[in-house]
Amino acid sequence: MALWAGRFKKAEDERVNDFNSSIRFDFRMYRYDIQGSIAHATMLARQGIIEQGECDRIIEGLNGILHDIESGALELDPAAEDVHMFVEAELTRRIGDAGKRLHTARSRNDQVALDIRMYLRDECDAVIGLLRQLAGVLCDQAEGHLETVMPGYTHLQRAQPITFAHHLMAYGQMLLRDTGRIRDAKARMNVLPLGSGALAGTTYPLDRPLVAGLLGFDGISANSLDGVSDRDFCVEFASALSLVMVHLSRFSEEIVMWCSWEFKFIELDDAFATGSSIMPQKKNPDITELVRGKSGRVFGDLMGLLTMLKGLPLAYNKDMQEDKEAIFDAVDTVKLCISTMIPMIETMKVRPERMRAAAAEGFINATDCADYLVKQGMPFRDAYKITGGLVAYCIDNHKTLETLTLDEYRAASPVFGPDVYDAINLETCVKGRKVPGGPAPEAVAACIAQTRAALASL
Ligand code: ARG
Prior knowledge:
It is found in: Cytoplasm. With 458 residues, this protein is mainly α.
Protein backbone atom coordinates (compact mmCIF):
# COMPACT_ATOMS: atom_id res chain seq x y z
CA MET A 1 0.00 0.00 0.00
CA ALA A 2 1.48 3.30 -1.08
CA LEU A 3 2.21 6.00 1.44
CA TRP A 4 -0.26 8.28 -0.30
CA ALA A 5 -3.12 5.72 -0.37
CA GLY A 6 -5.32 8.15 1.56
CA ARG A 7 -5.56 10.47 -1.43
CA PHE A 8 -6.05 7.72 -4.01
CA LYS A 9 -8.95 5.43 -4.85
CA LYS A 10 -6.86 2.80 -6.62
CA ALA A 11 -3.64 1.00 -5.84
CA GLU A 12 -0.63 1.76 -7.97
CA ASP A 13 -0.22 -0.43 -11.03
CA GLU A 14 2.76 -2.71 -10.55
CA ARG A 15 4.34 -1.42 -13.75
CA VAL A 16 4.13 2.15 -12.49
CA ASN A 17 5.80 1.15 -9.29
CA ASP A 18 8.67 -0.48 -11.16
CA PHE A 19 8.94 2.50 -13.46
CA ASN A 20 8.94 5.06 -10.67
CA SER A 21 11.21 3.16 -8.38
CA SER A 22 14.79 4.28 -7.89
CA ILE A 23 15.81 2.02 -5.05
CA ARG A 24 17.95 -0.18 -7.31
CA PHE A 25 20.34 2.71 -7.83
CA ASP A 26 19.74 5.12 -4.94
CA PHE A 27 20.12 2.43 -2.27
CA ARG A 28 23.85 3.13 -2.32
CA MET A 29 23.11 6.42 -0.53
CA TYR A 30 21.65 4.67 2.53
CA ARG A 31 24.44 5.74 4.89
CA TYR A 32 23.96 9.39 4.01
CA ASP A 33 20.19 9.10 4.21
CA ILE A 34 20.52 7.73 7.73
CA GLN A 35 23.12 10.30 8.81
CA GLY A 36 20.92 13.09 7.46
CA SER A 37 17.90 11.74 9.30
CA ILE A 38 19.83 11.49 12.56
CA ALA A 39 20.91 15.13 12.25
CA HIS A 40 17.36 16.20 11.33
CA ALA A 41 15.85 14.35 14.29
CA THR A 42 18.47 15.78 16.66
CA MET A 43 17.60 19.29 15.54
CA LEU A 44 13.82 18.65 15.71
CA ALA A 45 14.23 17.61 19.35
CA ARG A 46 16.46 20.57 20.24
CA GLN A 47 13.87 22.89 18.75
CA GLY A 48 11.11 21.19 20.73
CA ILE A 49 9.38 20.00 17.54
CA ILE A 50 9.58 16.35 18.66
CA GLU A 51 10.26 14.97 22.11
CA GLN A 52 13.75 14.00 23.20
CA GLY A 53 12.58 10.44 23.96
CA GLU A 54 11.22 10.11 20.42
CA CYS A 55 14.44 11.48 19.03
CA ASP A 56 16.43 8.93 21.01
CA ARG A 57 14.30 6.08 19.70
CA ILE A 58 14.61 7.39 16.15
CA ILE A 59 18.39 7.58 16.42
CA GLU A 60 18.67 4.17 17.96
CA GLY A 61 16.39 2.72 15.30
CA LEU A 62 18.33 4.38 12.48
CA ASN A 63 21.66 3.16 13.84
CA GLY A 64 20.20 -0.34 14.04
CA ILE A 65 19.10 -0.13 10.40
CA LEU A 66 22.55 1.10 9.38
CA HIS A 67 24.19 -1.73 11.25
CA ASP A 68 21.88 -4.34 9.73
CA ILE A 69 22.34 -3.06 6.19
CA GLU A 70 26.11 -3.15 6.57
CA SER A 71 26.11 -6.62 8.10
CA GLY A 72 23.82 -7.91 5.36
CA ALA A 73 21.01 -8.71 7.81
CA LEU A 74 18.72 -6.14 6.15
CA GLU A 75 18.36 -6.16 2.39
CA LEU A 76 16.74 -3.58 0.22
CA ASP A 77 13.07 -4.06 -0.48
CA PRO A 78 12.56 -3.65 -4.22
CA ALA A 79 8.95 -2.70 -3.56
CA ALA A 80 10.01 0.44 -1.70
CA GLU A 81 10.04 3.35 -4.11
CA ASP A 82 13.39 4.71 -3.07
CA VAL A 83 15.99 4.56 -0.32
CA HIS A 84 14.27 7.35 1.64
CA MET A 85 10.93 5.51 1.81
CA PHE A 86 12.70 2.26 2.55
CA VAL A 87 14.58 3.59 5.57
CA GLU A 88 11.55 5.45 6.94
CA ALA A 89 9.24 2.44 6.53
CA GLU A 90 11.79 0.13 8.15
CA LEU A 91 12.24 2.59 11.01
CA THR A 92 8.51 2.76 11.65
CA ARG A 93 8.29 -1.01 11.46
CA ARG A 94 10.97 -1.20 14.14
CA ILE A 95 10.07 1.62 16.55
CA GLY A 96 6.43 2.39 15.80
CA ASP A 97 4.93 5.85 16.17
CA ALA A 98 8.15 7.76 16.84
CA GLY A 99 9.31 6.68 13.37
CA LYS A 100 6.32 8.46 11.86
CA ARG A 101 7.53 11.76 13.34
CA LEU A 102 10.91 11.73 11.59
CA HIS A 103 9.61 13.26 8.38
CA THR A 104 8.20 16.34 10.19
CA ALA A 105 9.33 19.54 8.45
CA ARG A 106 11.05 17.59 5.69
CA SER A 107 10.22 16.45 2.17
CA ARG A 108 11.85 13.81 0.06
CA ASN A 109 12.74 16.69 -2.22
CA ASP A 110 15.13 18.31 0.24
CA GLN A 111 16.08 14.89 1.59
CA VAL A 112 17.27 13.60 -1.77
CA ALA A 113 19.04 16.89 -2.49
CA LEU A 114 20.84 16.40 0.82
CA ASP A 115 21.74 12.75 0.32
CA ILE A 116 23.18 13.21 -3.12
CA ARG A 117 25.30 16.16 -2.02
CA MET A 118 26.65 14.15 0.91
CA TYR A 119 27.31 11.14 -1.29
CA LEU A 120 29.04 13.14 -4.00
CA ARG A 121 31.22 15.24 -1.74
CA ASP A 122 32.75 12.01 -0.43
CA GLU A 123 33.18 10.80 -3.99
CA CYS A 124 34.94 14.08 -4.81
CA ASP A 125 37.47 13.24 -2.10
CA ALA A 126 37.79 9.66 -3.35
CA VAL A 127 38.49 10.76 -6.94
CA ILE A 128 40.96 13.41 -5.76
CA GLY A 129 42.73 10.72 -3.71
CA LEU A 130 43.03 8.47 -6.76
CA LEU A 131 44.21 11.32 -8.99
CA ARG A 132 46.80 12.13 -6.39
CA GLN A 133 48.08 8.54 -6.47
CA LEU A 134 48.19 8.49 -10.25
CA ALA A 135 50.05 11.80 -10.41
CA GLY A 136 52.46 10.45 -7.77
CA VAL A 137 53.17 7.40 -9.92
CA LEU A 138 53.82 9.70 -12.89
CA CYS A 139 56.34 11.62 -10.77
CA ASP A 140 58.04 8.34 -9.78
CA GLN A 141 58.36 7.19 -13.39
CA ALA A 142 59.47 10.65 -14.51
CA GLU A 143 62.22 10.77 -11.89
CA GLY A 144 63.89 7.77 -13.54
CA HIS A 145 63.78 9.33 -17.00
CA LEU A 146 65.00 12.89 -16.65
CA GLU A 147 67.69 12.17 -19.25
CA THR A 148 65.72 9.78 -21.47
CA VAL A 149 65.62 11.65 -24.76
CA MET A 150 62.60 11.06 -26.97
CA PRO A 151 61.05 12.92 -29.88
CA GLY A 152 58.39 15.45 -28.98
CA TYR A 153 55.63 15.53 -31.59
CA THR A 154 53.31 17.97 -33.27
CA HIS A 155 50.84 16.61 -35.85
CA LEU A 156 52.27 13.23 -34.76
CA GLN A 157 55.40 14.24 -36.70
CA ARG A 158 58.71 14.22 -34.86
CA ALA A 159 59.29 17.84 -33.94
CA GLN A 160 61.86 18.65 -31.24
CA PRO A 161 63.77 16.66 -28.65
CA ILE A 162 62.26 16.29 -25.19
CA THR A 163 62.59 13.68 -22.45
CA PHE A 164 60.19 10.99 -21.33
CA ALA A 165 60.06 12.67 -17.93
CA HIS A 166 58.96 15.92 -19.54
CA HIS A 167 56.24 14.12 -21.49
CA LEU A 168 54.89 12.34 -18.40
CA MET A 169 54.88 15.49 -16.31
CA ALA A 170 52.64 17.21 -18.86
CA TYR A 171 49.98 14.74 -17.70
CA GLY A 172 50.97 15.50 -14.11
CA GLN A 173 49.93 19.11 -14.66
CA MET A 174 46.63 18.08 -16.24
CA LEU A 175 45.80 15.81 -13.32
CA LEU A 176 46.63 18.56 -10.85
CA ARG A 177 44.16 20.89 -12.56
CA ASP A 178 41.61 18.07 -12.50
CA THR A 179 41.92 17.87 -8.73
CA GLY A 180 41.44 21.64 -8.53
CA ARG A 181 38.25 21.50 -10.59
CA ILE A 182 36.84 18.71 -8.42
CA ARG A 183 37.75 20.60 -5.26
CA ASP A 184 35.94 23.69 -6.61
CA ALA A 185 32.88 21.62 -7.50
CA LYS A 186 32.87 20.14 -4.03
CA ALA A 187 33.01 23.57 -2.38
CA ARG A 188 29.90 24.68 -4.29
CA MET A 189 27.98 21.47 -3.58
CA ASN A 190 28.77 21.56 0.13
CA VAL A 191 25.72 23.64 1.09
CA LEU A 192 22.85 22.20 3.14
CA PRO A 193 19.52 22.05 1.26
CA LEU A 194 17.57 20.53 4.16
CA GLY A 195 14.96 23.00 5.39
CA SER A 196 13.86 23.78 1.83
CA GLY A 197 10.98 21.36 2.38
CA ALA A 198 9.17 20.30 -0.75
CA LEU A 199 9.84 23.69 -2.35
CA ALA A 200 8.57 26.47 -0.07
CA GLY A 201 10.46 25.92 3.16
CA THR A 202 8.47 25.18 6.30
CA THR A 203 6.60 26.89 9.11
CA TYR A 204 8.48 24.90 11.78
CA PRO A 205 11.23 26.80 13.61
CA LEU A 206 14.13 24.81 12.18
CA ASP A 207 17.73 25.44 13.12
CA ARG A 208 19.29 24.90 9.71
CA PRO A 209 22.82 26.03 10.69
CA LEU A 210 22.80 23.43 13.45
CA VAL A 211 22.03 20.66 10.93
CA ALA A 212 24.66 22.07 8.57
CA GLY A 213 27.22 21.92 11.36
CA LEU A 214 26.28 18.38 12.35
CA LEU A 215 26.64 17.18 8.77
CA GLY A 216 29.80 19.08 7.90
CA PHE A 217 28.30 21.56 5.44
CA ASP A 218 29.93 24.96 4.90
CA GLY A 219 26.60 26.78 4.88
CA ILE A 220 22.88 26.57 4.15
CA SER A 221 21.10 27.16 0.84
CA ALA A 222 19.60 30.64 0.60
CA ASN A 223 16.54 29.86 -1.51
CA SER A 224 14.28 26.89 -0.95
CA LEU A 225 13.28 26.55 -4.62
CA ASP A 226 16.91 26.48 -5.65
CA GLY A 227 17.82 24.16 -2.79
CA VAL A 228 15.57 21.37 -4.04
CA SER A 229 15.61 21.90 -7.76
CA ASP A 230 19.09 22.46 -9.10
CA ARG A 231 21.51 19.70 -9.90
CA ASP A 232 24.22 22.01 -11.23
CA PHE A 233 26.63 20.43 -8.76
CA CYS A 234 26.12 17.08 -10.52
CA VAL A 235 26.79 18.75 -13.86
CA GLU A 236 29.92 20.44 -12.54
CA PHE A 237 31.26 17.23 -11.11
CA ALA A 238 30.41 15.31 -14.29
CA SER A 239 32.13 18.01 -16.30
CA ALA A 240 35.27 17.84 -14.16
CA LEU A 241 35.13 14.05 -14.48
CA SER A 242 34.77 14.38 -18.24
CA LEU A 243 37.99 16.36 -18.35
CA VAL A 244 39.69 13.71 -16.25
CA MET A 245 38.58 11.21 -18.90
CA VAL A 246 39.82 13.45 -21.72
CA HIS A 247 43.24 13.42 -20.09
CA LEU A 248 43.23 9.70 -19.34
CA SER A 249 42.01 9.00 -22.86
CA ARG A 250 44.78 11.03 -24.52
CA PHE A 251 47.35 9.35 -22.33
CA SER A 252 45.82 5.97 -23.15
CA GLU A 253 45.98 6.69 -26.85
CA GLU A 254 49.68 7.44 -26.50
CA ILE A 255 50.28 4.25 -24.54
CA VAL A 256 48.47 2.28 -27.25
CA MET A 257 50.81 3.84 -29.82
CA TRP A 258 53.91 3.42 -27.69
CA CYS A 259 53.15 -0.30 -27.27
CA SER A 260 52.97 -0.87 -31.03
CA TRP A 261 55.90 -2.42 -32.91
CA GLU A 262 56.12 0.85 -34.82
CA PHE A 263 57.07 2.69 -31.61
CA LYS A 264 57.95 0.11 -28.92
CA PHE A 265 58.73 2.98 -26.54
CA ILE A 266 57.26 1.07 -23.64
CA GLU A 267 56.17 -2.40 -22.73
CA LEU A 268 53.28 -3.07 -20.39
CA ASP A 269 53.71 -5.61 -17.65
CA ASP A 270 52.15 -8.96 -18.62
CA ALA A 271 49.68 -8.54 -15.76
CA PHE A 272 48.32 -5.39 -17.41
CA ALA A 273 48.07 -6.60 -20.99
CA THR A 274 45.99 -9.22 -22.75
CA GLY A 275 46.53 -11.80 -25.45
CA SER A 276 44.54 -12.81 -28.48
CA SER A 277 42.30 -15.87 -28.77
CA ILE A 278 43.77 -16.68 -32.18
CA MET A 279 47.06 -14.83 -32.73
CA PRO A 280 49.64 -16.36 -30.41
CA GLN A 281 52.10 -13.49 -30.72
CA LYS A 282 49.74 -10.74 -29.59
CA LYS A 283 50.11 -8.61 -26.48
CA ASN A 284 47.38 -6.05 -26.50
CA PRO A 285 46.98 -2.84 -24.47
CA ASP A 286 43.30 -3.53 -23.78
CA ILE A 287 43.23 -1.52 -20.56
CA THR A 288 44.16 1.70 -22.25
CA GLU A 289 41.76 1.07 -25.09
CA LEU A 290 38.96 0.55 -22.59
CA VAL A 291 39.86 3.74 -20.75
CA ARG A 292 39.78 5.58 -24.09
CA GLY A 293 36.43 3.94 -24.87
CA LYS A 294 34.92 4.58 -21.47
CA SER A 295 35.56 8.29 -21.82
CA GLY A 296 32.51 8.25 -24.11
CA ARG A 297 30.32 6.96 -21.31
CA VAL A 298 31.31 9.78 -19.00
CA PHE A 299 30.73 12.45 -21.67
CA GLY A 300 27.35 10.78 -22.26
CA ASP A 301 26.55 11.04 -18.55
CA LEU A 302 27.36 14.75 -18.65
CA MET A 303 25.16 15.28 -21.72
CA GLY A 304 22.37 13.28 -20.10
CA LEU A 305 22.44 15.49 -17.02
CA LEU A 306 22.47 18.73 -18.99
CA THR A 307 19.62 17.59 -21.20
CA MET A 308 17.59 16.30 -18.27
CA LEU A 309 17.79 19.66 -16.51
CA LYS A 310 17.44 22.17 -19.27
CA GLY A 311 13.66 22.30 -19.67
CA LEU A 312 12.55 21.81 -16.08
CA PRO A 313 10.31 24.43 -14.53
CA LEU A 314 11.08 25.15 -10.87
CA ALA A 315 11.06 23.43 -8.52
CA TYR A 316 11.38 19.62 -8.14
CA ASN A 317 10.34 17.40 -11.03
CA LYS A 318 10.61 13.64 -11.16
CA ASP A 319 12.95 13.97 -14.15
CA MET A 320 15.57 14.78 -11.56
CA GLN A 321 15.61 11.21 -10.32
CA GLU A 322 17.55 10.53 -13.52
CA ASP A 323 20.51 12.48 -12.11
CA LYS A 324 21.68 9.53 -10.06
CA GLU A 325 22.41 6.82 -12.59
CA ALA A 326 24.28 9.36 -14.71
CA ILE A 327 26.48 10.85 -12.02
CA PHE A 328 27.02 7.50 -10.27
CA ASP A 329 28.09 5.94 -13.55
CA ALA A 330 30.48 8.82 -14.23
CA VAL A 331 32.04 8.54 -10.78
CA ASP A 332 32.26 4.73 -10.88
CA THR A 333 33.79 4.76 -14.33
CA VAL A 334 36.42 7.37 -13.50
CA LYS A 335 37.39 5.62 -10.27
CA LEU A 336 37.70 2.29 -12.07
CA CYS A 337 39.83 3.78 -14.85
CA ILE A 338 42.22 5.60 -12.52
CA SER A 339 42.56 2.62 -10.17
CA THR A 340 43.50 0.36 -13.07
CA MET A 341 45.91 2.85 -14.59
CA ILE A 342 47.87 3.43 -11.38
CA PRO A 343 49.48 -0.04 -11.21
CA MET A 344 49.71 -0.22 -15.00
CA ILE A 345 51.85 2.94 -15.14
CA GLU A 346 53.77 1.84 -12.08
CA THR A 347 54.82 -1.45 -13.70
CA MET A 348 55.29 -0.46 -17.33
CA LYS A 349 58.79 -0.85 -18.74
CA VAL A 350 60.30 2.06 -20.58
CA ARG A 351 62.60 1.51 -23.57
CA PRO A 352 64.99 4.48 -23.56
CA GLU A 353 67.02 3.04 -26.45
CA ARG A 354 63.93 2.92 -28.68
CA MET A 355 63.06 6.51 -27.80
CA ARG A 356 66.63 7.62 -28.45
CA ALA A 357 66.65 5.82 -31.82
CA ALA A 358 63.40 7.51 -32.83
CA ALA A 359 64.82 10.85 -31.73
CA ALA A 360 67.87 10.29 -33.96
CA GLU A 361 65.65 10.14 -37.05
CA GLY A 362 63.39 12.87 -38.28
CA PHE A 363 65.67 15.90 -37.98
CA ILE A 364 64.26 16.97 -34.64
CA ASN A 365 67.42 19.04 -34.07
CA ALA A 366 66.80 21.20 -37.15
CA THR A 367 65.52 24.08 -35.01
CA ASP A 368 68.71 23.88 -32.99
CA CYS A 369 70.76 23.96 -36.17
CA ALA A 370 68.97 27.16 -37.20
CA ASP A 371 69.41 28.55 -33.68
CA TYR A 372 73.16 27.85 -34.01
CA LEU A 373 73.32 30.17 -37.01
CA VAL A 374 71.24 32.78 -35.19
CA LYS A 375 73.72 32.69 -32.31
CA GLN A 376 76.45 33.52 -34.85
CA GLY A 377 74.47 36.65 -35.74
CA MET A 378 72.30 35.49 -38.66
CA PRO A 379 68.61 36.60 -38.77
CA PHE A 380 66.31 33.66 -37.83
CA ARG A 381 64.44 33.57 -41.16
CA ASP A 382 67.70 33.24 -43.11
CA ALA A 383 68.94 30.57 -40.72
CA TYR A 384 65.61 28.73 -41.06
CA LYS A 385 65.91 28.72 -44.86
CA ILE A 386 69.51 27.47 -44.90
CA THR A 387 68.66 24.69 -42.44
CA GLY A 388 65.64 23.69 -44.51
CA GLY A 389 67.98 23.35 -47.48
CA LEU A 390 70.33 21.19 -45.43
CA VAL A 391 67.47 18.89 -44.38
CA ALA A 392 66.40 18.47 -48.01
CA TYR A 393 70.01 17.70 -48.91
CA CYS A 394 70.19 15.10 -46.14
CA ILE A 395 66.98 13.41 -47.29
CA ASP A 396 68.25 13.22 -50.88
CA ASN A 397 71.61 11.84 -49.77
CA HIS A 398 70.44 9.56 -46.96
CA LYS A 399 72.28 11.57 -44.32
CA THR A 400 71.39 13.17 -41.01
CA LEU A 401 72.48 16.53 -39.60
CA GLU A 402 74.88 14.57 -37.41
CA THR A 403 76.55 12.80 -40.35
CA LEU A 404 76.96 15.83 -42.65
CA THR A 405 80.62 16.77 -43.09
CA LEU A 406 81.81 20.23 -42.13
CA ASP A 407 82.42 20.88 -45.84
CA GLU A 408 78.80 20.08 -46.59
CA TYR A 409 77.74 22.47 -43.81
CA ARG A 410 80.08 25.18 -45.08
CA ALA A 411 78.74 24.76 -48.61
CA ALA A 412 75.37 25.82 -47.22
CA SER A 413 76.81 28.68 -45.15
CA PRO A 414 80.37 29.70 -44.30
CA VAL A 415 79.11 30.65 -40.84
CA PHE A 416 79.14 26.97 -39.75
CA GLY A 417 82.10 25.94 -37.61
CA PRO A 418 83.06 22.60 -36.02
CA ASP A 419 81.08 23.45 -32.90
CA VAL A 420 77.85 22.89 -34.88
CA TYR A 421 78.09 19.19 -34.01
CA ASP A 422 77.78 19.92 -30.33
CA ALA A 423 74.97 22.39 -30.99
CA ILE A 424 72.88 19.75 -32.76
CA ASN A 425 73.70 16.91 -30.38
CA LEU A 426 70.33 15.75 -29.04
CA GLU A 427 71.47 15.69 -25.44
CA THR A 428 72.81 19.24 -25.81
CA CYS A 429 69.54 20.30 -27.44
CA VAL A 430 67.53 18.96 -24.50
CA LYS A 431 69.88 20.28 -21.82
CA GLY A 432 69.88 23.73 -23.39
CA ARG A 433 66.11 24.04 -23.04
CA LYS A 434 66.30 24.97 -19.39
CA VAL A 435 63.69 27.69 -19.57
CA PRO A 436 61.22 27.12 -16.69
CA GLY A 437 58.71 24.57 -17.95
CA GLY A 438 61.16 23.22 -20.51
CA PRO A 439 62.52 19.67 -20.98
CA ALA A 440 66.03 20.18 -19.55
CA PRO A 441 66.57 17.72 -16.68
CA GLU A 442 66.84 20.48 -14.07
CA ALA A 443 63.66 22.18 -15.33
CA VAL A 444 61.72 18.90 -15.25
CA ALA A 445 63.13 18.10 -11.81
CA ALA A 446 61.73 21.46 -10.66
CA CYS A 447 58.36 20.58 -12.24
CA ILE A 448 58.34 17.23 -10.42
CA ALA A 449 59.14 18.96 -7.13
CA GLN A 450 56.36 21.49 -7.70
CA THR A 451 53.92 18.70 -8.58
CA ARG A 452 54.84 16.66 -5.51
CA ALA A 453 54.42 19.70 -3.28
CA ALA A 454 51.01 20.41 -4.81
CA LEU A 455 49.98 16.76 -4.31
CA ALA A 456 51.12 16.83 -0.70
CA SER A 457 48.95 19.86 0.01
CA LEU A 458 45.80 18.37 -1.50
N1 ARG B 1 13.55 9.19 -5.63
C1 ARG B 1 13.33 10.58 -5.79
C2 ARG B 1 14.50 11.20 -6.56
O1 ARG B 1 15.49 10.58 -6.64
C3 ARG B 1 13.20 11.24 -4.47
C4 ARG B 1 12.39 12.49 -4.47
C5 ARG B 1 10.99 12.18 -4.83
N2 ARG B 1 10.12 13.28 -4.62
C6 ARG B 1 8.93 13.32 -5.16
N3 ARG B 1 8.19 14.31 -4.87
N4 ARG B 1 8.55 12.42 -6.00
O2 ARG B 1 14.43 12.29 -7.06
